[in-house]
Predict the 3D structure of the following.
Amino acid sequence: SQQGEEDPQALSIQEGENATMNCSYKTSINNLQWYRQNSGRGLVHLILIRSNEREKHSGRLRVTLDTSKKSSSLLITASRAADTASYFCATDISGGYNKLIFGAGTRLAVHP
Amino acid sequence: GAGVSQTPSNKVTEKGKYVELRCDPISGHTALYWYRQSLGQGPEFLIYFQGTGAADDSGLPNDRFFAVRPEGSVSTLKIQRTERGDSAVYLCASSLGGSSGNTIYFGEGSWLTVV
């Protein structure tokens, strides 16, 4: 079963705009990770935020984590057409071996 | 190889047939994972190997599914008596160790269609 839910399910924006995707989850976590997937194939790891962290940055990506609300957000600034993909959050609920539970994803379309 | 390699990339099989999907992880990665992804959904955990042993197989849906990793490198996911509901992309991933927080690298997946 899926642990998390992403919101929105689909997002359509223009190049240069910011894209914000949200993720909610249900159980306690070790960390939360965001992945990108093009065309339904391989997933690419974007960023990991540990349960004791509140915010993390990587290039144009900014991730926040609120463990009290069991939610996270991924912000992509100054979006590009090449950012078009599906984005998934995944929570590590294992006792220490990266057992990831994924949400259903947000499909992002960035229009030139 | 440079990344996680999965074969075949696409497989069409008839209902009731046996299927094997192969995963070649990144060299040196001791942790290996199988996930299954249905259309429009996120990946679902199937099984985790640390070395040769299946440390967590709680995600395997039933006893028609089995996976091995006999030498601690290549893994094979085996599906017996395939059903149409088994149609999905089967994703393999590996990481340097099994510790929480190690970056996981995914392969491109094997798209299985059962007709």
Summary: The longest strand of chain A covers residues 43-50.
